[in-house]
């Protein structure tokens, strides 16, 4: 498929060329000067260049100036990212210019409406004290735009999507600055002026990017700013990539053709993979894109050839047939490609935690007299502590102490194993209707679920939620099967779907099915409905 690792053909040499390899100073396809070959040998009438088996050298060490630049200068000033600084400065410039003209425009509009010459006596430009607000506004705007990927080199968006993203950044920046002006009480910029400036800024940012696209398109038509691309592999991935680049000419990447060992050399298939260097020179290629990473040795050879000829190399990873928006991260020096991430309802979880904290804190304050009265009754009814620290299993299999009012005699845990033959529940559950270990006050507390009130403290601490699967004791957890562990993927709750729909159902499988239904279909509205139904269940006194 390609020449041996020890000798590679000197495809740039012509018959009669000197055996010293490439002519010094010959520009490469990428515009750089190729390094002189160490030596070459004539085999079968062709020049072959000797090389070591491994040619993927480590990157050169940075000199002192490069190290200083990396440590001190902002990333936007570095060579490959300077264009980002230009985009950021352009957005800043639009913002400043818009607020410079919004004052006179407002005066003219007011004069047109009221016909009062006195309006021209007002200051037309923003006062110096407002420059700080403009700086804050511009910083927020570019920061939010950066979070949306506006300044990413590989962010190629359709105009409609781009308008939505920029609109979101401008809107949120304007709202935050407006809130700051309102709270500070220093009204150097009116709300109307802020809204008008935001509208002009948004239109300016959209217009600037549309102008950039048109300039890039004209430049590409004239051959300026174009990078020629050669795709190694003519399969589905390579064809899809070529079609995408053809549909987005503003990227400035022009596919010159394909290299393939499996397709006839006709049309856009320019040659075999072993012809890479020759075709790259003849087509003035700047970039190689490899679409066959599953062939390890071939991939290594292509990368070596591309680097030897000073060509950029990109690789389409093998996603094993799955459609994915892959994310590349670096864990130290190890690149990691993320193929799939489960969506996390971040806003919903934040609201759930906020509701938990608010309701649990309010509940503890409101129920303080009731908690004190229950504690006194427990003390008067039986010997022992008021609270029972119940070991439970929390999310991801960790243990925690679930606080409850004590409803049993002090040695209840020791008596549990003796009573297991009387268990009235199926599976890992343990429950006896007339449990002899329960005290008189404890039976009343359990009937109305008042023994669970101290768990509001667990909710406030974040160990539990108001709604979720109930935490099971450790000995029940030890009887879990593998499929039961899914209920431990979420935070346990003070109440749950099982408590309001099948509280007296003895089936553990029924309990598990309801817990999994809650986990898979959770939303905040479901939590509120369960809380509402819990109040009804508690008032009916249907507890154990």
Note down, in words, how this protein is organized.
This protein has 544 residues and is an alpha/beta fold. Helix content is 45%, strand content 12%. The protein has 17 helices and 14 strands. It has helices spanning 64-72, 82-114, 131-147, 159-184, 191-221, 236-247, 276-282, 296-308, 346-366, 368-381, 412-419, 440-447, 455-461, 474-477, 497-501, 508-520, 524-539; strands spanning 7-9, 40-43, 46-50, 227-232, 253-259, 269-271, 287-290, 312-315, 327-331, 334-338, 387-393, 399-405, 465-467, 493-495. The strands form five sheets. The protein has a five-stranded parallel beta sheet with strand order 6-5-4-7-8, with helices on both faces. A hairpin with a 2-residue loop joins strand 2 and strand 3 (46-50). Helix 2 (82-114) crosses helix 3 (131-147), helix 2 (82-114) packs across helix 5 and helix 9 packs across helix 13. The N and C termini lie far apart (75 Å).
Key terms:
single chain, 544 residues, alpha/beta, Rossmann fold, 3 domains, 5-stranded parallel beta sheet, 3-stranded antiparallel beta sheet, 12% strand, flat, disordered N terminus
Record the SSE blueprint.
Elements: E1 7-9, E2 40-43, E3 46-50, H1 64-72, H2 82-114, H3 131-147, H4 159-184, H5 191-221, E4 227-232, H6 236-247, E5 253-259, E6 269-271, H7 276-282, E7 287-290, H8 296-308, E8 312-315, E9 327-331, E10 334-338, H9 346-366, H10 368-381, E11 387-393, E12 399-405, H11 412-419, H12 440-447, H13 455-461, E13 465-467, H14 474-477, E14 493-495, H15 497-501, H16 508-520, H17 524-539
Parallel strand pairs: 4-5, 4-7, 5-6, 7-8, 13-14
Antiparallel strand pairs: 1-3, 2-3, 9-10, 11-12
Helix pairs in contact: 2-3, 2-5, 3-4, 4-5, 9-13
């Amino acid at each position: 498929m390609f020449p041996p690792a020890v000798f590679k053909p000197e495809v740039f040499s012509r018959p009669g060329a000197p055996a010293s390899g490439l002519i010094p100073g010959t520009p490469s396809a990428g515009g750089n000067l190729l390094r002189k070959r160490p030596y070459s040998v004539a085999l079968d009438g062709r020049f072959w260049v000797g090389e070591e088996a491994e040619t993927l050298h480590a990157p050169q060490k940075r000199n002192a100036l490069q190290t200083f630049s990396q440590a001190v200068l902002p990333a936007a000033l570095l060579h490959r990212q300077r264009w980002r600084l230009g985009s950021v400065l352009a957005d800043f410039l639009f913002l400043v210019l818009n607020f410079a003209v919004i004052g006179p425009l407002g005066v003219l509009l007011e004069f047109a409406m009221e016909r009062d010459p006195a309006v021209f006596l007002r200051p037309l430009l923003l006062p110096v004290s407002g420059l700080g607000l403009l700086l804050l506004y511009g910083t927020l705007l570019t920061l939010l735009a950066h979070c949306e990927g506006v300044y990413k080199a590989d962010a190629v968006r359709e105009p409609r999507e781009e308008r939505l993203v920029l609109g979101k950044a401008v809107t949120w920046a304007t709202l935050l600055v407006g809130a700051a002006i309102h709270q500070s009480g220093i009204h150097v910029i009116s709300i109307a002026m802020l809204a008008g400036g935001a509208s002009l800024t948004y239109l300016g940012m959209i217009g600037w990017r549309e102008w950039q696209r048109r300039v890039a398109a004209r430049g590409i038509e004239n051959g300026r700013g174009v990078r020629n691309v050669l795709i190694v592999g003519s399969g589905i991935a390579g064809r899809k990539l070529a079609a995408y680049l053809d549909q987005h000419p503003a990227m400035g990447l022009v596919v010159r053709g394909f290299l393939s060992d499996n397709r006839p050399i006709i049309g856009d298939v320019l040659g075999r993979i072993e012809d890479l260097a020759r075709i790259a020179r003849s087509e003035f290629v700047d970039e190689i894109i490899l679409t066959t990473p599953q062939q390890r040795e071939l991939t290594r050879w292509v990368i070596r050839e591309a680097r030897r000829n000073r060509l950029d190399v990109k690789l389409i990873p093998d996603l094993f047939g799955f459609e994915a928006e892959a994310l590349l991260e670096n864990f130290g020096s190890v690149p990691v490609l993320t193929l799939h991430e489960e969506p996390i309802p971040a806003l919903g979880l934040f609201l759930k935690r906020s509701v938990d904290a608010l309701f649990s804190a309010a509940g503890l304050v409101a129920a303080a007299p009731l908690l004190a009265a229950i504690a006194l009754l427990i003390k008067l009814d039986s010997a022992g502590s008021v609270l029972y620290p119940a070991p439970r299993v929390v999310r991801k299999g960790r243990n925690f102490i679930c606080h409850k009012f004590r409803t049993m005699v002090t040695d209840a845990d020791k008596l549990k194993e003796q009573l297991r033959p009387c268990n009235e529940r199926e599976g890992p559950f343990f429950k006896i209707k007339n449990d002899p270990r329960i005290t008189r006050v404890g039976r009343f507390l359990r009937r109305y679920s008042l023994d669970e009130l101290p768990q509001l403290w667990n909710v406030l601490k974040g160990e539990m939620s108001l709604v979720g699967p109930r935490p099971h004791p450790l000995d029940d957890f030890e009887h879990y099967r593998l499929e039961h562990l899914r209920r431990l993927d979420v935070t346990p709750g003070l109440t749950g779907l099982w408590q309001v729909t099948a509280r007296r159902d003895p089936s553990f499988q029924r309990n598990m099915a309801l817990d999994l239904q809650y986990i898979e279909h959770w939303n905040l509205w479901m939590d509120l409905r369960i809380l509402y139904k819990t109040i009804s269940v508690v008032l009916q006194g249907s507890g154990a």
